[in-house]
Amino acid sequence: MKWHCIPLGALQTNCYVLAIDNQNCLIVDPGGDAERLISFVNEKKYQPQAILLTHAHFDHIGALDEVRDYFDIPVYIHEQEAGWLFDPSLNGSQFFQIGTLIRMKPADHILTEEKHMQIGDFKFQLLETPGHSPGSVTFYFPESSIAVSGDALFQGSIGRTDLPGGNHAQLIKSIHDKLLGLPEETIVLSGHGPATTIGEEMDSNPFLNGF
Predict the structure, then answer these.
(1) Which element (helix H / strand E) includes 200?
(2) Cα separation of 83 and 66, whole Å?
(3) What is the DSSP code string of 107-170?
(4) 3-state class of 202 per DSSP?
(5) Cβ–Cβ contacts within 10 Å for residue 51, how many?
(6) How far apart are CA 65 and CA 81, in angstroms?
C-alpha cells in the first residue's frame, strides 16, 4: 500500500491518501482545500472508496462534503463525534478565527466499537484512542505496518487535551494501551507534522517517559 501526505487547510492538517495496486484509495481527514485534494486524486487516477475520519475537529473535516459529493463516497466516523460534524461549537470552528462555521452533513457509517474492518480491498483495524477528543480513533493497517493516528500521537509529542472533551490521562492511557503495543516498526501517520514510528516514540517521546 502506498500513502501520500497532503497538508491542507489553514492549519496545514495532514490528509492521507492510501492507495493499493489497483488504484483504489481511501481518503483520511480531508481538512480543507477540496479542489487541491480532488485534483491530486484525479491526477493519480485513483478511485476513492471512502473517507475515514480520525476525529471531527474542524481542521480535519473542512473539505469533507465537497470531496464526498465529488467522488460520491461514504464517510466513516466514531459515534462519539457523529454530531460534531454539523455543530460548530463541538468541532471547534466557532472558537477559532477561521472565517467560517463548519457544518457538514451526517456521516454515512457510524463506528461504535473496535473491530476488524474491510472496505473494498482495504483490511484494517479500528482502534479507539480517545483523549485528544472523545471519539478519536486510529486506523491500523497491519499488512502495511501503518497506523493513521490523527491527533493522538505526534513525532516527539502528543495531542492537545484542552479542547472540549479532551482528557490528558485518557490520552496517555490510549497511547500506552493501544499504540505502544503495536510493532515498533509501525509507521505512525499523524494529523500534523512528519511521520514517525512506534519504536521512535517509545525511545524518545518526552510525554511517554516511564512507558
Answers:
(1) helix 198-204
(2) 19
(3) PSEEE-S-EEEEETTEEEEEEE--SSSTT-EEEEETTTTEEEEETSEETTEE----STT--HHH
(4) helix
(5) 25
(6) 16
pLDDT per position as a tens digit, 177-198: 999 999 999 999 999 999 999 9
User: How many Å apart are CA 168 and CA 160, to the nearest integer?
Assistant: 8
Which helix (H) or strand (E) segment holds residue 44: the answer is helix 34-44
What is the total count of domains within the chain?
A: 1
Gap between the Cα atoms of 15 and 150, Å rounded: 9
| Domain housing 73 | 2-208
- Cross-sheet strand order for the sheet of 2-8: 2-8, 13-19, 24-28, 47-52, 75-78, 109-111
What sign for the dihedral angle of Cα 38, 150, 146, 157? Answer: positive
User: What cell does 160 get?
Assistant: 492537545
* Contact between residue 182 and residue 200 where contact means Cβ atoms under 8 Å apart: no
List the one residue out of 91, 131, 129, 128 whose CA is nearest residue 9: 91
Q: What is the pTM of this model?
A: 0.96
Name the nearest CA neighbour of 40 among 16, 59, 58. Answer: 16
Which of 48, 40, 135, 54 lies closest to 90, judged by CA? Answer: 135
Residue 42, domain CATH: 3.60.15.10
Confidence check: pLDDT of 89 > 80: yes
Point out the least confidently predicted range of 1-5, 15-19, 88-92, 120-124: 88-92
